Amino acid sequence: MSKYPRSPLAPDEFPALPVIAGAEFATIAAGVRYAGRTDVMLARLAPGTSVAGVFTTSKTRSAAVLDCQDKIGGDADSGAAILVNSGNSNAFTGRAGFESVSRLTASVAEVLGLPQTRVFTSSTGVIGEPLPDDRISAKLSDLAGTLSEGGLEDAAKAIMTTDTFAKGATREVDLPGGKVRIAGIAKGSGMIAPDMATMLVYIFTDARYDQAALQRLVSTINARTFNCITVDSDTSTSDTLLLAATGASGVDATGAEAFDAALNDLMLDLAHQVVRDGEGATKFVEIRVEGAASDADARTHAMSIANSPLIKTALAGEDPNWGRVVMAVGKSGAAADRDKLSIRFGGVLVAENGWVAPSYREEDGAAYMKNSDLVIGVDIGLGSGSATVWTCDLTHGYISINADYRS
Amino acid sequence: MSKYPRSPLAPDEFPALPVIAGAEFATIAAGVRYAGRTDVMLARLAPGTSVAGVFTTSKTRSAAVLDCQDKIGGDADSGAAILVNSGNSNAFTGRAGFESVSRLTASVAEVLGLPQTRVFTSSTGVIGEPLPDDRISAKLSDLAGTLSEGGLEDAAKAIMTTDTFAKGATREVDLPGGKVRIAGIAKGSGMIAPDMATMLVYIFTDARYDQAALQRLVSTINARTFNCITVDSDTSTSDTLLLAATGASGVDATGAEAFDAALNDLMLDLAHQVVRDGEGATKFVEIRVEGAASDADARTHAMSIANSPLIKTALAGEDPNWGRVVMAVGKSGAAADRDKLSIRFGGVLVAENGWVAPSYREEDGAAYMKNSDLVIGVDIGLGSGSATVWTCDLTHGYISINADYRS
């Protein structure tokens, strides 16, 4: 799918996704930009489906994002549809961008017999070029004709851009009323940072869930999953996460802790997969900060570490350069005291009391850095604030991908 | 000096620096970390020298920085000294780091017959390793014995770390009382970002300047020069700028506009040289933002553009990827309106009214990007706030330098 090799951090295989009753999928090659591959996915959701979503906070967000935001909270009775294309983000395309969204949502509404207010679209790819929406519209009848309950894996492939592997996750939850299933797909590998990333995420469940409660739940979980990952600190104009609860299982999951925990787990799984496909990534890195003056301070420190080019290049070089961690804590702007700071690489205590730990041996740090999954632990030593974020290293691969992506 | 080739953006040659009456310099190879090169510089400043300084705001700043900060504003009558070593930053070295600074400043004070409170030191290089200050102390008599008025260019070389060229600048100013001279040197190429950079800057003038007024002047000029450059958004624990006004010319420049302008010009020159030596840099890039809601907002947008890895890699690839500029404005957090934004690459109007400009041709943007010096102009279209910052591109060279710098 991608012209780049599969990420060394990719999972072994795409998971077997269950059928989600009430949700059907279809994909097609519309030639939006790419040749020889599918680039459009359509999802049809049964009447009664609750739809929740979170979106990029970029002030230059795309027409599709603005349109989705307007539609969240709408009437669930009539069902819904999600149309996604890759290859062109329809972002920063002025008035024409809004017109494309309007034409597409109207066409989908007509083909599927839905109100236009229940048709959500996303576009991902190059910014600033007009979306050839006529190529997509021309395929809508064909798409609608091939909708099937089993098409979610194909959908995961159709929405890829620079991704090197398709991303999917699934969970089952046993509730008192019966079993419900959750399945999700995601795309994203560059321009990944809160809030959120060039990241598209679509999650489907056959549980019934009150729409307003679902929206609160998704926002809460998003804050500790997708908004805690960063590949390059850059934030997309198009980030979108939509969750559709069809209710077709007949089981109401509203407020059920087991469901909420499973959804959290699934969203974290997908978020980690996005980091594992970070452009050029060879290391998957968890940054755990504790002992900060507040949770917000902990997050500021963690993101300062996760986004530091000097740390990310040291990770690429398998260099246990804890001095750069000290630097990143110092520059973050959040409260810190050099002499109370301690740093661990995995289980190896590296620095404490304002200096290298007496027990630390450089060989231990260097050996740990050879792992492909790394944990950097920082105790600020000031309070009880904590945060965990995830990132990857910065390699020659990132430069290669991004210095010639557009041309 | 560096193991990396001279930056393609370097000036043709090091400028001929004038003698600054009242200032003498010496350098020596003390073997702090590097072999076969000078790594320590000493400056002796005549009685009556005003010293002003600005320093990193890092919360994990080094012992030498803290010591210098304490000493700014001290009595000028007794003269002063500046001792700088490269190879080891003596940062995050706990109690031992302070003891090293104390021993070094005491030794210099003794050798030169100065109060310890007038001895300023800086250290640059690897973080977290004990400074072998005994190697420096052992050379102090030799250093003092070779102090000469002409040694400033050699000093510029002694303070280099990953720099690929020595950095110097000079200006002359005709004041009513006579001519005064300013000469400065700088080092820095990585970990460059406000406030400030792994950047050391030492400026000398034979003008007389009231010490408190000089401190205000340096702080003001620093805010629009060194604090407006960024190579990689990372901030050092050791950044130091010291300005010494010996007064030996007998000409008082306090408050003289011509002097202030010349100093501004010299500091901007040195700041630009630091960017031109940005690790791996092949493009020198000026980001001009105007039309923002405030100057602060303009700076936020400008720094968001200047620090975006996706923009910096596009510049490296000579890709006129203005969509990434839209992205960086959108993510910055400062006020913006997609449909009021306009973007220029040099004289080429690229985008306006929320879309690509009708007159824009991709060939024009691509041709412009082939220049080694670039200007990205953004008009936010909201107000009259403006800011200009300088940065470089992000290349394979940066990765190569930083993935193996320490080992």
From TrEMBL, chains A, B:
<comment type="pathway">
    <text>Amino-acid biosynthesis; L-arginine biosynthesis; L-ornithine and N-acetyl-L-glutamate from L-glutamate and N(2)-acetyl-L-ornithine (cyclic): step 1/1.</text>
</comment>
<feature type="binding site">
    <location>
        <position position="402"/>
    </location>
    <ligand>
        <name>substrate</name>
    </ligand>
</feature>
<keyword id="KW-0808">Transferase</keyword>
<keyword id="KW-0028">Amino-acid biosynthesis</keyword>
<dbReference type="InterPro" id="IPR002813">
    <property type="entry name" value="Arg_biosynth_ArgJ"/>
</dbReference>
<dbReference type="Pfam" id="PF01960">
    <property type="entry name" value="ArgJ"/>
</dbReference>
<feature type="active site" description="Nucleophile">
    <location>
        <position position="198"/>
    </location>
</feature>
<keyword id="KW-0511">Multifunctional enzyme</keyword>
<feature type="site" description="Cleavage; by autolysis">
    <location>
        <begin position="197"/>
        <end position="198"/>
    </location>
</feature>
<feature type="binding site">
    <location>
        <position position="198"/>
    </location>
    <ligand>
        <name>substrate</name>
    </ligand>
</feature>
<feature type="binding site">
    <location>
        <position position="407"/>
    </location>
    <ligand>
        <name>substrate</name>
    </ligand>
</feature>
<feature type="binding site">
    <location>
        <position position="279"/>
    </location>
    <ligand>
        <name>substrate</name>
    </ligand>
</feature>
<feature type="site" description="Involved in the stabilization of negative charge on the oxyanion by the formation of the oxyanion hole">
    <location>
        <position position="125"/>
    </location>
</feature>
<dbReference type="InterPro" id="IPR016117">
    <property type="entry name" value="ArgJ-like_dom_sf"/>
</dbReference>
<dbReference type="GO" id="GO:0004358">
    <property type="term" value="F:L-glutamate N-acetyltransferase activity, acting on acetyl-L-ornithine as donor"/>
</dbReference>
<comment type="subunit">
    <text>Heterotetramer of two alpha and two beta chains.</text>
</comment>
<keyword id="KW-0068">Autocatalytic cleavage</keyword>
<feature type="site" description="Involved in the stabilization of negative charge on the oxyanion by the formation of the oxyanion hole">
    <location>
        <position position="124"/>
    </location>
</feature>
<dbReference type="GO" id="GO:0005737">
    <property type="term" value="C:cytoplasm"/>
</dbReference>
<protein>
    <recommendedName>
        <fullName>Arginine biosynthesis bifunctional protein ArgJ</fullName>
        <ecNumber>2.3.1.35</ecNumber>
        <ecNumber>2.3.1.1</ecNumber>
    </recommendedName>
</protein>
<dbReference type="GO" id="GO:0006592">
    <property type="term" value="P:ornithine biosynthetic process"/>
</dbReference>
<dbReference type="GO" id="GO:0004042">
    <property type="term" value="F:L-glutamate N-acetyltransferase activity"/>
</dbReference>
<dbReference type="GO" id="GO:0006526">
    <property type="term" value="P:L-arginine biosynthetic process"/>
</dbReference>
<feature type="binding site">
    <location>
        <position position="187"/>
    </location>
    <ligand>
        <name>substrate</name>
    </ligand>
</feature>
<keyword id="KW-0963">Cytoplasm</keyword>
<comment type="similarity">
    <text>Belongs to the ArgJ family.</text>
</comment>
<keyword id="KW-0012">Acyltransferase</keyword>
<keyword id="KW-0055">Arginine biosynthesis</keyword>
<comment type="function">
    <text>Catalyzes two activities which are involved in the cyclic version of arginine biosynthesis: the synthesis of N-acetylglutamate from glutamate and acetyl-CoA as the acetyl donor, and of ornithine by transacetylation between N(2)-acetylornithine and glutamate.</text>
</comment>
<dbReference type="InterPro" id="IPR042195">
    <property type="entry name" value="ArgJ_beta_C"/>
</dbReference>
<comment type="pathway">
    <text>Amino-acid biosynthesis; L-arginine biosynthesis; N(2)-acetyl-L-ornithine from L-glutamate: step 1/4.</text>
</comment>
<feature type="binding site">
    <location>
        <position position="161"/>
    </location>
    <ligand>
        <name>substrate</name>
    </ligand>
</feature>
